Amino acid sequence: MNEFETKIADISSGGLYADDIDILQVNLGLMCNQECAHCHLSCSPRRGEMMEWSTMELILDVVKRVECQLVDLTGGSPELHPDFRRFVEILRAKDLPVQVRTNLTVLLEEGMEATPEFFKDNGVQLVASMPCYLEENVRAQRGEGVYERSVDAIRRLNTLGYGSEEHLPLNLVYNPGGPFLPPSQVGLEADYRRELKGRYGIIFSRLLTITNMPIGRFQIYLRKQGQDEEYLQLLKESYNPQTLEGLMCRHQISVGWDGTLYDCDFNLALGLSVDHGAPDRIENFRLPELLPRRIVTGIHCFGCTAGCGSSCGGALVN
Length: 318
Known about the structure:
- By secondary structure, the chain is α/β, with parallel strands linked by helices.
- 32% of the residues lie in helices and 11% in strands.
- It has a single domain, classed as Aldolase class I (TIM Barrel).
- Strand 7 (252-255) and strand 8 (261-262) form a beta hairpin.
- The radius of gyration is 19 Å and the shape is globular.
- It starts with a helix and ends in a 28-residue tail after the last helix.
């Protein structure tokens, strides 16, 4: 047992186990038009890792067998994959709900101008990174000009009905700018609505708060600041057992760009594939073994269980 499993032993003495697979998360590759300071996957325009179509075909076969409620496409910038539209269209033809995690600015890149209309035409749900409603905080995390371009992209999406029409949700994502936990998701959402509506006329569906994991570029930042041990201690001391039931690893599975299976996106970043006897490749996907699988955990799991909890869908408890 590792330190995290020791912590949860009074609730789950044999480790952490999956309950179901409601969400199939697919990482299409690590190429991104941005290079964010907090990125746990260290994505950038220089990354060439990208999912092959043969792997995408295997996923299309798997979704026939998994009665998941959502296919969640992520990256990098998933929109930059050359087969992105083809993949989305086939998934939607199967009547599967599709969600795309977008950094917004990619929608303004050359050759991507028609992507918002493509999203609307295919009923794609959107989760968009907007780490703060203040320009200076976004600039610190994501670089010069990103805030302005993000605002422009949201306005464009708003004109298409995103954020106002029920079947076109536009959820924004906040993550802290430093080694601290997110504030209350409910309270911060009210701040976002007031500030973005008042300044730019922007509307959105929900705000999702996500804790920065002590991995990837954020871990490098912490070490440079000499705050890595202090931050990890904060996560441990903020452990909340009420978050365990809703942990994303218990309700989804992630497929890496190379077809490797992971319990979550953070394990993907750390190279910790599905283990404990369950198949760890998409070509060996066997639902009876993956549904009740024991989850691979580590010290980073304190990030998802700290405070109000954290997941790809935001906070886990009020």
